[in-house]
Structures are given as structure tokens and as C-alpha cells.
Specification:
Layout (H helix, E strand, L loop, with lengths): L19 H9 L5 H8 L15 H13 L3 E6 L3 H16 L5 E3 L12 H7 L8 E6 L6 H9 L2 E6 L13 E3 L15 H17 L17 H10 L6 H13 L6 H9 L9 H17 L4 H8 L3 H33 L4 H4 L2 E5 L6 H12 L3 E8 L5 E8 L6 H7 L6 E4 L3 E7 L3 H17 L11 E2 L2 H4 L2 H9 L12 E14 L5 E6 L6 E5 L6 H6 L2 E13 L2 E10 L1
Helix pairs in contact: 3-7, 4-7, 4-8, 4-12, 7-8, 8-9, 8-11, 10-13, 11-13, 12-13, 13-15, 16-17
Length: 572
């Protein structure tokens, strides 16, 4: 532990020098000078911006204290993705810790859709313990002005915690915690929804600690234990890894080595990553997809239930349910991708510069299938799932994903006359199109995307960050300092290296359909295990010519409770 009580990543036992290639990587990312390098490699919780810098935070905390003192009903409303469910779990657990029972709700993605809906309040208000009540949203609400007014008319006060772009129509008439507000001093920190929720909790604890009636409730409360939720939601939501987000995520992954909350412990155990140093890759590829599977298939409640219970039997039941949902998500993705790939073979994606498929797809996995189409076709892709509405009419709802240099939300704005509703950002969108507007939408969208390609200036490559041999990267000292570059994500991508001369002494294909290439790379003192996902077709080339150049990155291999480093080959 360091002097702040924060667990630190240990220094390597032998070599203490920072490798030259690490210094070069940091320089490429704009980090130079001894103090800046040290701050980046060893982020400290004490350097987080103070909670009062969040616009409206102190007002929000005061309102919550008022409702606590009056014993009014408090309702938490979260989004169904990882960011929303972890933020909801964070708030529910905080109130639980201080002895306040709250109601919470996660809307069903397939039945209720995104954001607040008035029907739930109309149907559930009779169960509230008081006529006056307080609603706190998580990762949603900033675009729900109409619904918020309805809730206020019912007798509710509303605090919105969100991080999405402020709508052109302006803010809803309530207390809003959203760093996107122009006057918010945390705007540049790009907090995820769960990050905003954490700042609310931090501000609330500070307010309670000075209130004679309530200070005993937070006397021994350590907010650090909640940071595992912040790390999960922040990494999964792929927000920019600003200085503040980096501090929060690093501390959160360290807390997850031995988390306080038993449901989170169980989830890590089920993913074979408990009790070890957890990386952003573990969150992005092992934990996040399990949590997201519940939301995609319309059962996000199971996530919050798992994270807020202490009952061992219930925890086991929820873990098994998440595993089943995740497997179903995988099966639906494969089925949807197979159908979509067959469809795009009949499209001229090279000429159209886009790919749009529609029909009998599962709405919950539309975004994942769209991502797979982008990987395959290298053009913006949209997957629209057919939905039946009242009167026998059809609409198409779905998701789109883009490529570097093509602004998907701007393209949809130009096609708005043919779209019922849409939202998102440059790289990912959601949309709804009426059946009678589908052909018109396809024409307008193709025209706009073709126009953007003509003016496209960004060319994406998978080129390496730096030339460095496998041998120099895959040693104890180098791997230690590479782990200190964590967390990886937007604005701090996982580094890629180029080795101009390696010898592959063994290679074989693995995985379903022999898709992947498993190999052994000759080393000086010991050989290095390597894996090339999607490179199975290279097996003959490698066997015929084992002396290769390659682009790679180090990665951890987790198998039956053991962890080892291996070379992830990206290109050879």
C-alpha cells in the first residue's frame, strides 16, 4: 500500500530502469519530463479533481440530504448497458451502506427502450413509501425533458446524472450533473456515466460528513471500494482515458484484485481472473461482454441484482444466468453475422461505400453484427431488425458502426427526413426507420456516405508504434512497465511493436474452423508463445517460411487459473 492507502503495482524485483522504448512510447503520447512520466505511470487518487468542480453537485447533494432526512422514497433509474448498470449498482450499494433502502429500475432494452418512460412511474408510484420522492438517473435522462416534467407533476424531484451530449432543445428543468454542460469545470475530463455517479457519491459523502444528523453514517465509509464499478463502466463505455478517467480506472482495477462486493467477486471468479492483476483487456473482452449480454437480450436487472446482493445462492443463480445470456448472445451474433455476410455478397459495397442489411435480425445484437460487417467490408455498416407495431405495420430498428474519417451521426442528420429517430456519435449510432421510408433512407444514406468518402482525410492503418524486438519486449522488466501504461483505450491505445526478424519454430491452427494461428517464437533464453487471431489462413506461409517480420503486442493468456504472457501477433 502507498501512503494514501491505495494499492500500488509493485516494482519489478530486479531491473528498475525504464526501458528506452517505454520512454519513446510515452513521448509519442505527449508525455515527457520526469514528473509527467511519473504521474502517468503511477496515477494517484489524491490528484482527482475536487467534487465541487462538478456543476450543480453541491445543490444535488443538499437535495438528497433533504429527502433522506424526510425519509422520502429515493428511486434510481439507470441505463441497460455496462456503464448504466455499474453506475446504478454503485448508487444502490452506497445508499445500502448508509442504511437507506432505495427502489431502482433498469428499463428493458427490447420492451421499454432507452431513457425514462412515464409508464413505469404511473404503474409503480403506488408502491412508493412517500408521496414526495426523489428520482436520480444514471447514464441517461438529459434528453427526457417531457418525461421529467411528468415525474415532477407526480410529486417528484429529479437529479439527472448523465454524460451524453446536451440536446439542442436544452436541459430538462431539474438538477443536472453532466460534464457536457459548458459551465462545468470537469467538461474536459470526459467522465463516463458511472464516473458522474461516483462524483455524486463523493459529494454526498462530503456533505453528510458535516451534517450532525448524518455524519455517523459515513464515518467509516471508504469510497475506494466502489471504484471497481467505475473501472468496469468506464472501460466498457470506451470513453477517452483522460487524466481523471485514468486515475479512476487504475484504482478500480487495483480494487478488483480483491473486491468488497461479493457479486463482483463471483463474476471475476467465473471469468477466471480473480486475485490477479486485472487489465483493461480483461474488462473489454471477458467481463464487459457478460454484463452487456444481459442488456442486449433485455434482462439487465440481473446485473444490478448480482452486484447488490450478499446472498450466496442468489449470486450463483445470477452468475449462471449471465453465462447463459452471454452464450445466447454469442449464438445470436454468429447467426446474425452469417445472415448478414450472405446478404452483403449481393451488395456492391465498394461502389456504395456502405453496407446496410435489414430483416429478421435480433435487435439486441445489431450493433455487434454491424461491427463485424465493418471489420469485413471496411465501410460503415448498419443492421436493422424488423419490428412489428400496432396495426400490422413494420418498422426497422437497429445500430450502425463506422470507420475512421466517416461521421455516422452527421450522415444520419442529412437523412433525417427518412428516419423516425436516431442518436449516437461519429462511430456508433442507433436508429429507427419506417418500412415505407426504407428505400428512401437507403438512397439518401448511400449518397451522403459516398460524399464523405470523397472528402475523407483520415487513413487508418494497423502500423506499429515503434520498432522493438520480441525479446526486448517480452522480458520481466519491460512487461512490468508496459503494465504501468494501463489502462488502455481511447487516447491511450495498447502499443503495437514491429520486429523485423523472428523465427517461428512451431505453428498450428486452433479454434473453430481453424481460424487462429498458434505459434512458438524462438527466444534467446526461452521461447515465446504466440497467438494470431484470425491468422489461421497464414499457416502454410509460416510453415514454408518460418523467418518472418511481424507486428505484435504483449497480452496475457488466462487458462484454468494460471496467467502467462504471450505474443499476440497482429500481422506477419
Amino acid at each position: 500500500m502507498n501512503k494514501n492507502g491505495q494499492k500500488s503495482r509493485a516494482l519489478p524485483p530486479t531491473h528498475l530502469e525504464i526501458p528506452d522504448f517505454i520512454i519513446e512510447l510515452l513521448k509519442q503520447r505527449g508525455i515527457t519530463g520526469k514528473n509527467n512520466v511519473s504521474s502517468f505511470l503511477y496515477p494517484q487518487l489524491k490528484n482527482l479533481p475536487n467534487p465541487p468542480l462538478m456543476e450543480n453537485l453541491e445543490v444535488a447533494a443538499a437535495l438528497i440530504l433533504e429527502h433522506i432526512a424526510d425519509q422520502n422514497q429515493i428511486v434510481i433509474w439507470g441505463d441497460y448497458d455496462v456503464d448504466g448498470t455499474t453506475g446504478t449498482a454503485l448508487l444502490v450499494n452506497f445508499f445500502k451502506e448508509i442504511g437507506i433502502e432505495v427502489k431502482w429500475h433498469i428499463p428493458g432494452r427490447l420492451t421499454e427502450g432507452y431513457g425514462l418512460n412515464t409508464a413505469w412511474f404511473r404503474d409503480n408510484i403506488s408502491t412508493f413509501k412517500s408521496k414526495r420522492f426523489l428520482l436520480i438517473t444514471v447514464d441517461s435522462g438529459v434528453s427526457n425533458a417531457e418525461e421529467i416534467q411528468y415525474i415532477k407533476d407526480l410529486g417528484g424531484h429529479v437529479i439527472v446524472t448523465d454524460h451524453h451530449v446536451i440536446p439542442e432543445s436544452g436541459l430538462p428543468e431539474c438538477i443536472v450533473l453532466n460534464p457536457e454542460q459548458a459551465s462545468c469545470k470537469l467538461k474536459k475530463e470526459k467522465l463516463a456515466g458511472v464516473g458522474v455517479a461516483f462524483y455524486l457519491v463523493a459529494g454526498l459523502r462530503a456533505a453528510m460528513s458535516t451534517d450532525n444528523r448524518l455524519q455517523h453514517l459515513v464515518k467509516d465509509l471508504n469510497l475506494k471500494s466502489f471504484l471497481g464499478f467505475v473501472a468496469l463502466g468506464t472501460v466498457s463505455d470506451m470513453v477517452e482515458l483522460t487524466t481523471t478517467n485514468r486515475i479512476l480506472v487504475r484504482a478500480g482495477t487495483e480494487v478488483m484484485d480483491s473486491p468488497k462486493f461479493r457479486g463482483l467477486q463471483a463474476l471475476l471468479h467465473s471469468s477466471d481472473i480473480f486475485g490477479t492483476e486485472i487489465s483493461s483487456e480483461d474488462i473489454g473482452f471477458l467481463i464487459g461482454p457478460k454484463i452487456n449480454a444481459a442488456g442486449r437480450l433485455g434482462d439487465s436487472r440481473v446485473v444490478v441484482e448480482l452486484f447488490t446482493t450478499d446472498d450466496d445462492v442468489e449470486i450463483k443463480t445470477k452468475i449462471k444466468k449471465l453465462e447463459r445470456l452471454n452464450q445466447k448472445r454469442k449464438d445470436l451474433c454468429k447467426e446474425g453475422a452469417d445472415t448478414a455476410f450472405s446478404e452483403i455478397c449481393r451488395q456492391d459495397t465498394g461502389k456504395n461505400k456502405n453496407c446496410v442489411v435489414y430483416g429478421d435480425y435480433h435487435l439486441g445484437v445489431a450493433g455487434i453484427v454491424a461491427s463485424k460487417l465493418v471489420e469485413f467490408s471496411k465501410v460503415p455498416s448498419i443492421v436493422l431488425a424488423e419490428q412489428h407495431v400496432a396495426g400490422g405495420e413494420k418498422i426497422y430498428k437497429g445500430s450502425g458502426r463506422s470507420v475512421d474519417g466517416i461521421n455516422l451521426i452527421a450522415a444520419l442528420s442529412k437523412c433525417s427526413s427518412a428516419i423516425e429517430k436516431f442518436g449516437g456519435h461519429e462511430m456508433a449510432v442507433g436508429l429507427t426507420v419506417a418500412e415505407n421510408q426504407l428505400d428512401n433512407f437507403l438512397k439518401l444514406f448511400t449518397k451522403e456516405i459516398q460524399s464523405q468518402f470523397e472528402n475523407r482525410k483520415i487513413v487508418h492503418t494497423i502500423g506499429p508504434d515503434i520498432e522493438c524486438s520480441v525479446e526486448d519486449v517480452m522480458n520481466e522488466n519491460s512487461l512490468h512497465y508496459l503494465s504501468l501504461l494501463e489502462p488502455f483505450g481511447r487516447h491511450n491505445p495498447q502499443p503495437k511493436f514491429y520486429d523485423r526478424s523472428v523465427q517461428v519454430i512451431h505453428a498450428k491452427t486452433v479454434g473453430h474452423g481453424a481460424d487462429h494461428l498458434n505459434m512458438t517464437i524462438r527466444g534467446v533464453y526461452s521461447n515465446h508463445k504466440g497467438i494470431g487471431f484470425g491468422l489461421g489462413e497464414k499457416i502454410s506461409d509460416v510453415q514454408e517460411e518460418p523467418n518472418r517480420s511481424l507486428i505484435f503486442t504483449p497480452t496475457k493468456n488466462r487458462f484454468r487459473g494460471t496467467v502467462s504472457w504471450q505474443v499476440r501477433v497482429l500481422s506477419l
